[in-house]
Write a structure and sequence with these properties.
By secondary structure, the chain is mostly helical. It has helices at 8-23, 29-35, 37-48, 51-65, 79-93, 97-134, 138-178, 183-207, 213-225, 233-256. The protein folds into two domains: 8-208, no CATH class; 209-257, no CATH class.
């Protein structure tokens, strides 16, 4: 389902969601919502009335961010911001998931600068919080730790994301739709696929062990060899769980012996 543009309500709802996630206003769980595009993609799909296609696009974007880490809370590219713009543009213009990645990455990089600007504004709040701490002012600490940083996030993100969605997304979507099927989008698709592969490689580098690579190769060749059977992901997940259980069981038995 393709849309000509986003309404004011749609743009505002997505902007409010991004601000809430970036501010961690929903508690510690919002840290994971910020790092993973999946929930933001779901919200965008829900708001735009096309959850299925939104999640297909978001799944491709998720692959790029699988191996990213956030030292000190800062990421080189903000997943929630990237998804909030790339998914609507892809839905509006009918982009393939791999083509949407090429939009998500630069938008996410701009979002990281916005996050750093939020850090800068929070330095002034920290000074106020230190004053409240020295006075053992409980209400003041709540204001400095919870309320004011949340307000700063909403003031920064809501207007910018709203303007980007309401005014920018339709323009980008119309431009990309006019170029659909050409060489440019073939290049974008190839680049997007490469970035997804890079994300998988990074996660393997971060958490993988050489002894576990055989399982990755087994899963890959099973997926390719059995593609004609149209086995869904849930079935593969169950098979993977069984293989993992057997591996742990046998290795534990050998260790005890």
């Amino acid at each position: 389902m393709q849309h000509a543009s986003l309404s004011v309500a749609q743009s505002l709802l997505i902007a409010l969601w991004v601000a809430a996630v970036q501010s961690r206003a929903l508690g510690y769980s919002t840290l994971m919502l910020r790092f993973s595009p999946m929930m933001t993609g779901f919200i965008v799909g829900l708001v735009m009335g096309d959850v299925a296609q939104a999640m297909k696009i978001t799944a491709a974007i998720q692959l790029v961010y699988m191996g990213m880490i956030a030292p000190g809370g800062a990421m080189p590219s903000e997943p929630a911001v990237a998804t909030s713009i790339a998914v609507p543009v892809a839905l509006l213009s009918g982009l393939k998931p791999t083509e949407a990645i090429a939009i998500a990455v630069p938008v996410g990089m701009l979002g990281s600068y916005l996050y750093q600007l939020r850090f800068y504004f929070n330095t002034f709040i920290i000074r106020l919080t230190d004053k409240f701490a020295s006075e053992t002012n409980d209400k003041g600490l709540f204001l400095g730790i919870i309320v004011l940083p949340t307000i700063v996030s909403f003031v920064l993100y809501v207007p910018l994301i709203f303007v980007a969605l309401y005014y920018g997304a339709p323009v980008i979507a119309n431009f990309t739709a006019s170029l659909a099927g050409g060489k440019i989008f073939h290049i974008l698709s190839v680049i997007g696929g490469g970035l997804a592969a890079l994300g998988i490689a990074l996660i393997l580098k971060v958490i993988g062990k050489p002894s576990f690579l055989v399982f990755f190769l087994l899963a890959y060749f099973m997926a390719v060899s059995l593609a004609s059977l149209k086995i869904n992901t849930v079935t593969y997940a169950i098979i993977g769980g069984i293989v993992a259980y057997l591996y742990v069981m046998f290795t534990s038995a050998n260790a005890e012996a």
